[in-house]
Amino acid sequence: MIAAPNEDHRPMFAACDINKFYLEHCPEIFPKKNPIRSRVGAFMGPKYDGKKLRSLVNGLLGDTALSQTLTNVVVPTFDIKRLQPVIFSTKDARTNPLKNARLADVCIGTSAAPTLLPAHYFETRDQNGKICSFDLIDGGVTANNPTLVALSHIERESLLHDGEFKDINLRETDPILVLSLGTGAAKHEEKYSATKASKWGLIGWNFHNSFAPLVDIFNDASSDMVDIHLSTLFQFLKCEQHYLRIQDDTLTGEESSVDVATPKNLHMLMEIGQRLLRKPVSRVNLETGRFEEIEGEVSNGDALSHFAIRLSEERKRRNK
Question: Where is this motif: DGA/G (predicted)?
Answer without folding.
Answer: 138-140
